[in-house]
Amino acid sequence: MWGTEPELLVVLEGAGRTEGPLSALSALAEFGRVTSALPPRLALLAVPVSRAAELAARAGVRGVFVDGVPPALRETLSPAEALFVDGWLARRIAKDRPAEGRPWDAPGASPPDPPPVADPPPAADPPPADPPPADPPPADCAAD
Fold first, then answer.
1. Low pLDDT (below 70) residues in the chain
2. Which of 7, 66, 68, 129 has the least CB density, counted as fewest CB within 10 Å?
3. Residues 6+ positions from 53 with CB-CB distance below 8 Å
4. Where is the composition biased (Pro residues) (predicted)?
């Protein structure tokens, strides 16, 4: 994440009866920008790492994580929550971009691939052939 605060994963306790999941998530905005959320328990919060302990001490917060999730907590996640956490972790992995910041036409670089050519549309069925001419009327029929 270039030039921004790191995203911390905030795991909330289960929503109580008096407070809905959205109010618990909206209370996180006091600390920083909520960049993503999966109600009722998960949110990504853009805040300095130095505020993680302060955030974790709040009522209703089960944990605040900087770079991973303990296995014991991971076991309590639903499949959707596990996918959310995996997406957060994947975003934190450094990308291998050897040409990062260099122009595409720099010496030694090859230009980008051209856009793919669309396959031509399938040929239309040929028009039906003209029907054969009708047989001439028999000779014994006279036209009046």
1. 1-4, 15-22, 141-144
2. 129
3. 64
4. 109-144
